[in-house]
Every structure is written in C-alpha cells, then in structure tokens.
Amino acid sequence: MTETLQHHLLPTYARQDITFVEGDGSWLVDSAGKRYLDLLGGIAVVGLGHRHPAPLKAAHEQLDKLWHTSNLFFTEPMEQLASKLSDRFGGADAFFCNSGTEAVEAALKWARKATGRAEFVSLEGSFHGRTLGALSVTGQPAKRAAFEPLLPGAVFATPETLADHVGPSTAAILLEPVQGEGGVHPLSTEVLAEARALADRYGAMLIFDEVQTGVGRCGAFFAWQRLGAKPDALTLAKGLANGLPVGAFLVGHDAPTAFEPGDHASTFGGNPVACAAACAVVDTVDDELLAQVRATSEKFANALPNVRGLGLLLAVELDGPTGPFVDAALEKGLVVGTAGPTTLRLTPPLTLSAEETDLAINVLLELLA
Ligand SMILES: Cc1ncc(COP(=O)(O)O)c(C=O)c1O
C-alpha cells in the first residue's frame, strides 16, 4: 500500500515530486526504489559521496560519546577542526556556526568591528545567503526586493568596476572566487589580484565566500589556492561535514582578531558530531583526491559543449530553459542542478569514479542531442 504524505512545509522551494530515502556513494535511491546518479551532491554539499565511511565512522563514534556542551567549554572535535583548517589556510582562527549564511553574518560583523567602517563591496550576480545581512550583500535584486529595507552600506560592483567602488569607507570586499548560485562564473586571477591590492591600499578586509567553492570543490582545498590571491578571512559551509550542518568563518593570523567575548555566538556552533565528521572530511580531501577532482573536471569539460567553471563546480549553458532538461535527466536517473534559467549546474561528489563520469557524460550527451 502506498502511503500519501501530506506536506506541511512552507512553500519556499519548488521541489521535485521525488522523495529520496537512501544514498550510497554517488547514488541516490527514491521511495519507489529507483536509482539515480547524483551530479548535484546536495548542491555541492556531499563532496565525499553519500555515507562516505570516514565521516560516517567519525560521526557515529562522536554520537556515542558527546553531543553538545555549549560554547562555554571546549570540545575536542571543535578544537581539532579549527586546527586542521588553520593548517590548510596557513594560520587562521575559526568561528563555527551551522550554515553558509551564518558564516557570512559572522564575516560582516567581524569586518565592521575590525575596521570601524560600514560599507561592504560585493559583486552584482553574487550570492551570499538569505538572512538579512547576507541577503543585503547578495547582488541579485530579485532576491532582495520583497525584504527591503536591508542593511545600509551594501555596494555592488562588477569585476571591471571594483576599483570605482572600493575606498576609505570600505569595511570589506566580499567575493565568491567562483560565483556559484549566480551562474558559475569563475573570477579571473587578475580580478582577485586587483581586489587584494585594493583591500591593501584602503585598509579594507578581503573576504572570500568559499561556502560553495571550498573543501576541495574547485580542485584545491580552497579555491583561492588555484586563483592566486589570499584573503584576510573566508567563509566555509556546504561540503565541510559532507551533509551534516556546519559553517565556519576563518580569520587569517595576519588579519585583526577583532572579536572579543560577547561579540558573536551560536548555540549549536561547533557541534561535536558535525565537527568530528568535518575533521574526517578535511583529512580525506588530500592531494590525491584533489588531483582526481581536476582530472574529472577536465573530462567533463572535454566531453560536453559550452562548459565553464572550476574543478567540480561546473556549468553547462543550454540553448533552452533548464526545467524540461532537469525533468528529462531525472527520468533517465540523473540528478542535475541549475544556476539560472538556461544554466545547468553540475556539483557531483568529488569522489565520482571514472566509470560514473563516463556514464554521466553519456546520459548528458543523449539529453543535449
Ligand atoms: C557562496 C555562498 N554563500 C552563502 C550561501 C548560503 O549558505 P546556506 O544555504 O548554508 O545558508 C551559499 C549557498 O548556496 C553560497 O553558495
């Protein structure tokens, strides 16, 4: 007997009429038992594939030990994760939260405190989250309009006009090294170098939003490591715990700490189970896996038409709307994402095997024909 569920969910998402019940590596299984190759990876979250043994074991072990203590105390997983992220960054201190938008909120507050200035310069087309602060610096008017008035001091530039907008009242320049939600547009090394130079000239903070691009997604642990310019601070979330909720805001040791006790907080931030899983993720994203990400990326780019992106944050530009394409892909057992009306977004597990990549390419080519 099929049970019909009544959905008591606010309609903030246009959901597909599919209920997934199980995941295994690069594969998902729906409630009817149909298998799908997952080229979405929970929107760039499930970087190691579903139920990867390393974070799974770490989370299980931590579940059996300690779930929560509050941030009035230290816990081992939180300290270990901060130390691993510091090593990857080349010296940084972390604030932990539960999502990307919260990491951006921490970044905005930090930049104001660190500089005593109010203005944020971000890019048109950017996406930094849905809370009011992060939404205020998101360069997509359609997402902001219904919720105004938003935070004062948000200034939007294009990569070409950054220099016209950064000045002595800029607290921070906030950039995604590859714009994700806004259509998968990598910034050039020149633009990032200019942003670094402008921040240095005016004493502004350079913050990279690596919520989507970080944790190996772009073929290096941080995308900036492929693009040259090092930020003062950065945000992470999505792939950090392979699907458990965690966000992080990292401040490099060369930048001001700024925050003092009482300035910022998160009850669940640094949750031991999420941090234990994240430690296992960071350990698993090693040079070998990063080389595999770059190789898989090249394979997609060579086989498919109209591809852009970096690592396994890829877009395929279609001739028509994405909706029917996504539906046809699901029909054929392939889960793909979108990033705009005619842009497909591919953010598969970083662990996608050579055979799975070939299968994905063949199905995509059939659908594109
Ligand atoms: C670059 C970037 N920043 C922030 C966010 C917001 O993250 P979250 O949905 O975890 O709040 C996203 C989400 O897509 C993102 O891509």
Describe this protein's structure.
- By secondary structure, the protein is α/β, with parallel strands linked by helices.
- The protein folds into two domains: 20-52 and 286-314 and 325-368, Aspartate Aminotransferase, domain 1, CATH 3.90.1150.10; 53-284, Aspartate Aminotransferase, domain 2 (3-Layer(aba) Sandwich).
- The chain is 36% helix and 19% strand.
- The chain has 13 helices and 17 strands.
- The strands form four sheets. A seven-stranded mixed sheet has the order 4-12-11-10-7-5-6, with helices on both faces.
- Strand 1 and strand 2 (27-30) form a beta hairpin.
- The longest helix has 17 residues, at 287-303.
- The radius of gyration is 20 Å and the shape is globular.
- The mean pLDDT is 97.
- It binds pyridoxal-5'-phosphate.
- Residues 99-101, 104, 127-129, 176, 180-181, 209, 211-212, 237 line the site of pyridoxal-5'-phosphate (PLP).
What's the arrangement of secondary structure elements?
Layout: E1 20-24, E2 27-30, E3 35-38, H1 41-44, H2 53-63, H3 76-89, E4 92-97, H4 100-115, E5 119-123, H5 132-136, H6 141-144, E6 154-157, H7 162-165, E7 170-175, E8 178-179, E9 185-186, H8 189-202, E10 205-209, H9 224-227, E11 233-236, E12 247-252, H10 272-284, H11 287-303, E13 307-310, E14 313-317, H12 322-331, E15 334-335, E16 337-338, E17 343-346, H13 354-368
Parallel strand pairs: 3-15, 5-6, 5-7, 7-10, 10-11
Antiparallel strand pairs: 1-2, 2-3, 4-12, 8-9, 11-12, 13-14, 14-17, 16-17
The chain binds pyridoxal-5'-phosphate.
Residues 99-101, 104, 127-129, 176, 180-181, 209, 211-212, 237 line the site of pyridoxal-5'-phosphate.
